Task: structure prediction
Amino acid sequence: MNQSPKLILSDFDGTLSDHKEFSTKFIDIINLCSDNKTPFVIVTGRSISWAHFFLTHFEKLEYVISEGGGSLSYRDGNGFIIDEYLVSDDEIKWLEKFSSELKKQFPLVRLSADSTGRVTDRAIELFDLKDEELLKSIKTFMTSQNINYSTSNVHLNFWCGEVSKYEASKYLISRFFKDYSIEETIFFGDSLNDQSMFRNIEHSVGVSNIDQVLDIMEFKPNIILKGEKNSGPSGVLSYLKGILKN
Result:
């Protein structure tokens, strides 16, 4: 970008974390953005319960998009957390019904531990889907029931309705950053479920560990960082230090 972004959006797993582990660089990133008075928003496939965790444990975070774009959480003027679901009640009910059917069809497949904290989507651990034929059968079943799905670093997420990280980000901007445009935004990511952002946000950056899935991506980030030193949060922090003023 020729100038500092007005809004910074970022995936979490693999982008702001080292594998599944929190990093001190995550705190450094939040502080750097805060020092520059640039809003920083996590856009993650993790559950809405994780959104609450981020908001309650990191006071400099004001907004979190979770469940792959199905939920937006933020604190109101009194400090209370507000959740907005970006799918209809009917779609949430259909997802609940489908999840029960999924368990009947594939009794050995377990929903992720955090699925009990999810509202607008559910997830299956990729660790349990190493059998390619099983994965193919599950995806076929989902398609037959009008269920959408996407793969992150750790999960096969599935949901009802038109949900994406990009649509949720557009809603966030229209709701809380009306003076901003998507062209003044930058996004960091590293996985398949970030493709809606890579497709639609010009200033998109892939940290170097994206190379694990780059060959199977239809939509790729505009900038791809290289080398182990630019993996995950190290890449995000280094890039932001290069474009932010302070």
In short: The mean pLDDT is 93.
